[in-house]
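re the bet — no i am not wrong, look at it urself. input seq straight from the record:
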Amino acid sequence: MPSFGERLKAARQTAGLTQQHIANLFEPPMSRNAVANWEAGTNMPDSSHLTVIARAVKESVDYLLEGRGKRGNSPDHGTEQYALLKIADELDEDRLDQLVAYARLLQSDMVNAPKPTNLKTSCSKKARA
């Protein structure tokens, strides 16, 4: 079974990223050698960096660490989902709990709310009447 470093390297190359691209994801940027050491198995990234790395290479953290889980299930950088995850990564534990509670509230409202009407269809029906 491939190691973390081997999975990271393959995923990075598949995503069309260089080691420097990965290094530049962090503030302050890491050295390219740090990423090379992760891929070589010399060092492992901090756990706080794993989510950022996984998103960049569009893989799950489970896949990178253990070789299991869905492949390619990390959201793209341009999505609202990615933006929300980025915000969540920066919250302290209390605020993260509040965010999760609010998201669950929104989700339950969506389940119980009436289906939205298609405005275009509604307007067309009125125009024909």
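see?? The longest helix spans residues 93-112. told u. also The two ends are 66 Å apart (CA to CA). so pay up
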